[in-house]
Structures are given as C-alpha cells and as structure tokens.
Amino acid sequence: MRVAVLDHTAELSGAELALTRLLAALDPAVVDPVVVLFSSGPLEERLRRDGHRVVVVPLDPGVRDVGRAVGAVGALRAGSATTGFLGRLVRTLRDLDVDVLHSTSLKADLLAAPAALALRLPLVWHVHDRIADDYLPARTARLFRTLARRVPHAVVANSAATAATLPGARRLTVAHPGLSPEQVAVAPRRHQPDGPPVVGMVGRLSPTKGQLVLVRAARRVVDARPGTRFRLLGAAAFGAEDYEREVRAEIDRLDLTDAVELAGFVADPRPELDRLTVCVHASTVPEPFGQVVTEAMAWGVPVVATRGGGVDEIVRTHPADAETGLLVPPSDEEALAAAVLDVIDRPEAALERAARAHAEVRERFGADRTAEVVTAVWLEAAGRRPPADVVVPGRPRVAIAHDYLTQRGGAERVVLALHRAFPDAAIHTTLYDPDGTYPEFRDARIVVSPINRIGPLRREHRAALPLLPYAVSRLPVDADVVVASSSGWAHGVPATGRKLVYCHAPARWLYQADAYLGDEAGSSAKARALGLLSGWLRRWDRRAAASADRYLANSTVVRERIGTAYGIDAEVLAPPYGIDPSDPQEPVTALEDWADDGYLLVVSRLLPYKNVDVAVEAVRGLPERLVVVGSGPLEARLRATAPDNVRIVTGLTDAELRWTYAHARTLLAASLEDFGLTPLEAAAFGVPTLALHAGGYLDTIDEGVNGSFFEEPTVSAVRAAVVAARDRAWDAEAIRAHADQFSEARFHERIRAAVAEVAAPSAPEPSFVEP
C-alpha cells in the first residue's frame, strides 16, 4: 500500500518529530510511504538521511508561514498562489500513484482536501492540534470541526483530548505520538544527579508553552533553595521572537541571570535530561498531547506538568501510591514552584514516581504501537484487510448487536456511537423500524431476525417480548468480537468469536417489574402474563449473561444490578453524550414563543418509570413553563391532563432537539435512570439539571457544578426543587467542561481498548462476585 504523507512545513516541531518516529516504525512489507512537503528544510534533510522518499511541492511562503493567530482560513485566503499550488500538488500525487493521502498539519489538511477529491483518493487527517477556541481562532476551529465530519475518510487524533474537540469526526481514532526505542532508558533512574538541583524545560519558546510562568516560579524556588539552576531548552519559532525577548527581560527583572539559562534548540535532549533533577511542562493552555512529558518520563526524569489536554492522559495522579508525576494548575507560578520544591526536597518519592512513569510510558507510548494503529486506518481507507501477520491493536473483526432498533432513545444513541467507533461493523438486531429510530442507521448494514417480517411488532416491540428469546437465538454473529448493547436481549446472541456486553441495565421486566409496568403492575393482563413467563425468562437471561467474555456497565448503579442479577463484577464505562451543540439548529415552531424567556425541559420516553407525569404535575400552577420532548404509551394521557404551562412535542429532528436544548433554562430529570444521558446533553449546551438523587444521575451530576438533586420522585419534591432553583446562578462554562468528561472520543478510546483486550487470546475470564 502506497501512502503519501503531506506536511506544509519542513521545520522540526513536535508533530514533525513524531512523524519521523512513525515512519521509522512502519512495516515496509505493508506500507510504502512517500513524504510530500510544501517547503525544504530540516525535516526534509532528516527524512532523506533516514532513507525515506521525499518530494517537495513548494507553497507560497505567504500561505505557508502565516501563524496560528491568523489561522489556516486566513492563510489560504491570503495566498493568491494557492490555485497554482493545488494544480502542481495534484499532478505530483498522480505521478506518485498512491493509494491513500495522509495530511499531518491543519494547513495540509485543507490543501489536501481538493487534491483528494480531484484524484478520488481516501484522505486521512492526522490532527495534532486541539480544535478549540483557546488554541485556534474561533472561526478556524468551527470550520475544522465542520469539515472533519464531512471531508476526510478518517481522522486520527494525537490524544483523546484532541479527539474531544472534534465531535462527530469521521472514523475518529486516537493514536498517541510514539517514542522510538532509543528514547526509552534501559532502566529507571536510581538516584538524582550530583550537584545543585537543575530544573529543565524542553520546548520551543512560545507564550502557550509557559516559559514566563516558569521564570516567575524560579524566583520562588531560588529564594527557598539557593543554588538551584534552571535550563530552558528550545528556540523561538513561528514568529515568537518577541516572546523570547520578553522572557529574557523577565529574567533580568527578577535578577535571575545567574540562575536561569536559555540554552537554545537541542537536537537530542537526552544528554540534557541526564542533568535534570526535574523536567517541567508549564503550558498555559491545554496541550494537544505533551510529547516532552513522555520523553522525560521515558528517560526516568521526575516530571511536574500543568493539568489539561493530553497531559491528563499521560500523567497519573490517582491513587496516590500510583502517581507518575505531579500536576499543577496552568499559569499558577506559586503551585508550580511548590511542586518543583517537592521534587527537590523529597527525592525518594520523586524517583518512585519516575520509576512508575518509566514503566508505564514504555508500555503505552511506543512508536510501533502508533504505527500499527495508523497502518490499520490506512488499510481500512484503502479498502484492504490487514494481513494476517500484522498485529493491529483495537482492530479485530467487530460486529454490534442491539435489542431492537424501533425507537429513539439513549441506548440507540450509544449504538450509533459504537458504530462510529467500528464503522465497518454490521449491526444485528431483532427488530428494525427505519422510520421509528434515528435516520443515521440507514447508513449502517443492519442484520435482522426472522420476526422482523411481522410489521406490527416493528411498530410495538413490547408486544414481541415472548418471542424475543427465539429471535435473538436466530441472530448468529460471525465476528472476532461482538459488542452486545443490551438492556435484556442482545447479550444472548450466538457468537462465533468472543462477546463483550455493554449493559444498559439487566432486564427491567424481570428485575424491576413493578417500576417497568407502572400502573399496570399487580393484576393487569400484562402483569399476569409476565408473571407466568418470568421464571423461564430469568433462566434464559442468566444463561445469556454467562455466555459473555466480558461485561461493561454504563453506570455504577447498573454495575451493582449486574452483580445482583448475574453475579458478574462489571467494569463501568460511561456512554458518551451524543449531541453536538456546534451542529446546526432548527427552531421548533410550537415553542418559538417561549424561546426568549426559556423553559424547564424534560427529554424522555413517556413510560411509567420515567416519572414525566410527576414533572408535569409539579409545575401545575407555577409561573415556570415546561417543555416535554418524547413519545410513548403515556403520551395521550399526558396531553389530556397537562396544564396550559406544559407543551409536549414529539418527532423532533436532531437539529430541532439542539435548538430545544439551547433555549432551555433547566433540565428536569425525575426518572429512575440506569445512566442519565440527558443531563450530559443539556450540559453540552451549558444548561443545568434538577435530578432525582438516585440511579445513573449519581454518575452524571456533579452537584453544584452541572446540577442539583431532589430526594424523591414526588410532585412536592420536584416542585420544591424548581422553586429553590429560580434565582440560582450557574457557570455555563463549568457545566460544559463537565460534559467534556463524557465525550464520544473518550468513549471510543476505551471501548476500542476493551475490544482489543477481549480479542486477545489471553483475555481474562469475567470475574464473579456473590449475588
């Protein structure tokens, strides 16, 4: 497979150094890479020296060299020579006869798009920048987020933090920048270097890298421990010469010329790392990844770093006896100085952290692992299966199973997220109603059971309950791993390979029958029928659960229910929220007159255990307005009894739902939920939640940050919570930050890792606890 790797710059910055290690780790029996640069420079020289093919297609410097402050959009608009360049690029790529284009910088991403279109080639974007307003111009960030959902065949992000800034990006994969074997010390450091402490920082001189913060922290450290020396390794680049002068001026102002040295660019930092007592990462904005952190840890040097971005994926701080480094808030010179002094004053503890870090980085961040993941993306883009002798972590043959696709709910959104994680996977389900569920399923390959031919069952899946064990048993799945998204049925699919169950809840109709039936509990015909079937269904259900190789629970409370029902100790993996606030919105006509003042919002299926009737009655007589979004068996009754300050809307498109969330003041969540997805969807829009203090909401509500609790699902409790929250002020940015912890990118990373572990021949059997 021939891959053209495109980069707009030939300078040696972090992304380019990661590229050199990636290319060196590729298997030449599988991939034949050629690097296409848009200028000549040190990267070209290094690649040629390493034996790689390099072609230079010069780009006008007015486009190529514009800084991030202007943004890629402004650069392209400013470059009148772009059209001529694209013509030369297309001709060059055609002559190279490549199978896949792989762009490694934001400017290269934009310029490669029309070339890929002209040549009808798959394009993979390798994103090394957080696509966020604190890192890029807002307009550029919005454009890239939009294009990432439409233009490339696939997107590779250098961290989960970067991936989280690209919601909905196509075939999104995380591949951390890897280290070459020579960057990893043979053994962890046994003692600190002799002589006075030396504090080092490696990275180009830039305002976002935080050299000024470290210089100001240095004054505190030197005052406390005279003789401490600081070495700042790196040169100004990309127009940061003014910042270098500012750093030098600050060193003079603080009288630190004898303690702080600007050592300039160092091609090989390892001899410098040998001298350091501690390596500092002081970035003032979240880093996309933080390669210097992994480099220092791999060399056995204790690390102090600022929280945020990809660094949080590298440095472990919990539990305390497993720390691999110290993290401090960005731009906090006092906290930074205190952490540096902690390393200096407690060398044994610092070396213990460094030893754990050395072992972890060696295991997680090798360039060979990065090459395997990226190669798998290229093979998929080129329409090829990986050769049998190519090990591809997280890329076994995967299928997805789900109970039924007949409605629009949180579980169905999770299935869509699973399909975006494994876009080639077929989805196996008992019933499929394309008009009743999300339209995105039309783009997937759906495999249905024999009972799907019965039209009334597609429209009312609850009527199929006695037939579903039969239907599931007629859904054999041929795959290395089947991911069963189950609320009671899909975990029973017959599988030729291994089975990973993602459990939304053990079957409610078996283990929480009264809550499931609501008013029909007791002596109703449905309750009597369920009572007659429950013994047989429980036996079937427990056999189905025992057939799994691994169980995941979507929340802490579901983990407890799985333990009670099946005796399985499941791992908790929270699902992602599946709605992107940056996507287009479409007004809901029936609600436009309420939009300016806002409203309380309930988003729920209209089932008894959802307690929507409680929320409706709670606002009766109050000045607040309530919007209910959803449909279900209780819809007619709720419409008939709802007061004038309640409106019920159904059948909203995703664009209309986004508009509805965006104009809400507060979400009401009174149901007993297994997870509680809607508070996260609301939080993505900066909207707080008033929630029942139970169930999955215990995992998704951080009280005082994105919501508050009421203690019972009663009219009086909900009404009191609504009244108490009238004048409360909420921090919308803190609410959105809370939602980011549940991003789809993070979910994808963990579910792919779980699939890779289950697919391995050494995958452990599920552990059990006493029910």
Helix content: 25-40%
N- to C-terminal distance: 52 Å
Q: Quick check: average pLDDT?
A: 87
Supply the number of helical segments. 31
> Stretches where pLDDT falls below 50 for ≥5 residues?
68-73, 75-80, 387-394, 762-771
Tally of individual domains: 4
Rg computed from alpha carbons, rounded to a whole number of angstroms: 28 Å
CATH hierarchy: architecture of the largest domain: 3-Layer(aba) Sandwich
Please identify the top-level CATH class of the largest domain. Alpha Beta
Strand content: 5-15%
CATH topology of the largest domain: Rossmann fold
State the fourth-level CATH superfamily of the largest domain: Glycogen Phosphorylase B
Q: Taking strands numbered 1, 2, ... along the chain, how are they ordered across the largest sheet?
A: 3-2-1-4-5-6-7
Q: What are the main properties of this structure?
A:
single chain; 771 residues; alpha/beta; Rossmann fold; 4 domains; 7-stranded parallel beta sheet; 31 helices; 39% helix; disordered C terminus
Describe it for me?
This protein is 39% helix and 14% strand. It contains 31 helices and 26 strands. It has a seven-stranded parallel sheet with strand order 3-2-1-4-5-6-7, sandwiched between helices. A seven-stranded parallel sheet has the order 16-15-14-17-18-19-20. The longest helix has 22 residues, at 525-546. Residues 68-73, 75-80, 387-394 and 762-771 have low confidence and may be disordered.
